[in-house]
Structures are given as C-alpha cells and as structure tokens.
Design brief:
It contains eight helices and no strands. Helix 1 packs across helix 4 and helix 5 packs across helix 7. It is mainly α.
C-alpha cells in the first residue's frame, strides 16, 4: 500500500464509523418524536430548489445506511492500525482521519491533548510512513526504519577524536623513513620550537 492508499483507507473508515450506532452511551429516547413532519400544504409553498432538496435528501451520503464494503474497510483500518507501535501516533492518525471525515478539527483535538498542531502532524505522518514501510518491506527482512528515525539520539561527532596525532608501536619500522618523525609528533612542541628560533633570529 502506498501512503495515498493508506490515507484513503483511514478517511473512509472514519466516515463509516460516523454512521455506526452509538452504543457507548445509554439508548436515546424513543417514546417521543422530536422531529417535525411537513405536510403537502407546507411543501407546496416552498421554492422549487427546496422541493428538489427535500425530494432527494434520502440520497445524501451521510443518511445512507452502511454496506458490507464500508464495514470491511473499517475493520481493515483497525487491523492496519496495529502496525503502528506507538499509541500516541495511532491516536493522532485516527483523530486526523476523523477530522477529514467531518468530525472535530484536528488542530482543536491537538490543543485539547496539550501539544501543537505541528507535533500532531509529525505523529500522524510518522504513523502513515511506518505502515507504508511495513507493507513495502520484504517478508524475510526486518525493517527498523520509521520509529523515531528522524530524530538523532546521539551526538554526530561523538566517536571522533579531537587530538591530532599519529601513533605507531615502537616495534614498527617505516618503509622508507620519511615519516619517522611523525611517530610522537606534538603540535605544541613544534610551535614552541619555531617561536624560540624566531626569538633567537630577532635577538
């Protein structure tokens, strides 16, 4: 799967979840009809545009019932979500998908969670990249890219030495002898010797 296909999968899964029944709270009141039904006398006084909208409102995508394909996409998105190890990245990806499907704006969700929109975007993009890398890798090769790969954990020059020196064991012998004097070269001693020679010439 490419990143564009992953994005489309999660947005369509979020759209399907908006139509799922809300079973996380007590059932709504069913004994009273809170809606208003317009009779033909009311509709006859409407403009033609309003009549056409009333006639075709049952075809609005938000009011259509879910089909098996939409439920399958939602279940596939929930399985693909398991490929992201970090729960913060999973939550950011799902909140962004719900925002794209018409839910709460992503910036408002990030503010409620206590971090910036930039961090939320980074987490969401990192989750998508991790899913794409999982699908792109070979079956027999482990792929470790994508989990904090963009943030360095160590100093870049931590393994480099700042001492300018050539060390060679005493038993080694140069081939032609041109670098014999580099065995225990000290930069400060050489500078001091040049300074003494200048002072002697000046005196």
């Amino acid at each position: 799967m490419t990143e564009a296909e992953i994005i489309e999968l999660f947005v369509r899964a979020a759209e399907a979840e908006r139509k799922l029944p809300d079973t996380a709270r007590p059932a709504r009141l069913k004994a009273m009809n809170l809606g208003y039904v317009h009779d033909f006398a009311d509709i006859n006084g409407w403009h033609s545009e309003d009549k056409a909208a009333k006639r075709w409102e049952w075809l609005e995508p938000s009011k259509l019932r879910l089909d098996t394909n939409a439920i399958g996409l939602w279940e596939a998105a929930m399985e693909v979500m398991k490929l992201v190890a970090d729960p913060n990245k999973r939550r950011a990806l799902w909140a962004w998908a719900k925002a794209e499907a018409g839910g709460q704006p992503f910036a408002k969700w990030c503010k409620a969670e206590g971090f910036s929109r930039q961090l939320g975007d980074w987490r969401r993009k990192s989750a998508i990249e991790q899913i794409a890398l999982t699908f792109a890798r070979k079956m027999l090769q482990h792929n470790d890219f994508g989990d904090e790969s963009t943030l360095p954990k160590e100093a870049e020059i931590g393994d480099k030495s700042t001492t300018i020196r050539v060390w060679r064991p005493d038993e080694s012998k140069p081939v032609c002898g041109f670098d014999e004097e580099l065995r225990d070269f000290s930069w400060s001693d050489a500078q001091n010797q040049r300074r003494r020679q200048r002072e002697k010439r000046a005196a």
